[in-house]
Structures are given as structure tokens and as C-alpha cells.
Amino acid sequence: MTAEERNSSLKESGIIFLSGTIDEVKAENTCKDIIVMNQNEKLTKINLFINSCGGDVCDTFSIIDLIEWSKLPIYTIALGQVSSGGLMIFMSGNNRLISPNTSILSHTHSWRIGGKHSEILANNHENELVYNRMIKHYIKYSAVKTEKRLKETLLKQVDTYLTPEEAIKYGLADHIDGSTK
After folding, report:
1. Is the residue at 95 inside a domain?
2. Tens-place pLDDT, residues 1-48
3. What b/e readout covers 4-36, taking b as 16+ CB neighbours within 10 angstroms?
4. Full domain range(s) for residue 29
5. pTM for this structure?
């Protein structure tokens, strides 16, 4: 079986595998897969396997928006590394399973800006908008319900690495390797 045939077979079974850096191409492909699977009357759910170090926050939110739009429940499964935008996508799932050896990283986004003064001001405004979207997302999908507490726990100024057990404690995941809370 070729890689293309294997990928097609997975999609027909309602399985999407999102790995590597989240960029425009991966976001577009993942969004298209979710849309197509929602048109498949044989499917009752979508399984989205995630092994991602994160990536572009706007591309991340495009996938999150489609997860929230989906009429089919989307179960997210964390494998390997789930960091940054990968974690935000994982958190959005209807049922969130994390393998016991998954490396988890939560942090606020990085933003590099440059250019003319007016461009820097405009980019700074977008930076604030993105930051506020992240705060709202974490409050919606985690057990941490205030911005102040998020800044103390999950969105500190330094990278925050978590065990799968800590991910459950903070409400980022629902199960470890099939076990219940």
C-alpha cells in the first residue's frame, strides 16, 4: 500500500494525523479534511492524532475554528510532542486522550515585528488581539478560569512543561492512555 493509499484509507476511517510544524499548508489540509469528513454520512466522529511542536498561531486558530464548527465530534489524541499551537488544537477536542509518554509544552506566543513605525504599531495591535484570543481559548478549554491564574500556571513568561497527569489537573486533557479521570 502506498503512502497516498494509506492516507486515503485513514481519512475514510475518520482519522487525521497532524504532525510537525503547523503552517498554512498543514492548516489548510487539516481544515479540508475536517470539512470532507463532515460530509461523510458513514462517520460518527473524527480522530485527530497530534504530534506537533506548534507553529503559526493564526494557522492554529483556523484548525480550532473548524473543530468548533464540525458537526461530528472531534476526538484529539496527543502523541510524542504536543506543544504551543499543537496543544491549543489538542485542547479543543471533544474527548482528549494523551499517551503517557507525551511531552507537553504550554506558553504564550512569540511575535517578531519590524518595519516602519506605523507597521510596528499595527503589528503590536494584532499581537494584543492574538494574545487575548489565546487567553479566551485557555479559559474555555482548561480548568484555569482567570487570566491572572493562567499567567501563573500555563502561560508564564517561560516555557511550561507538563506531565500528562498535570495536563489532566489543569483540564487540558481528559484521559491518559484510555484511563479515566
Report:
1. yes
2. 777 777 777 888 999 999 999 999 999 999 999 999 999 999 999 999
3. eeeeeeebeebbbbbeeebeeebbeebbebbee
4. 3-107+158-176
5. 0.90
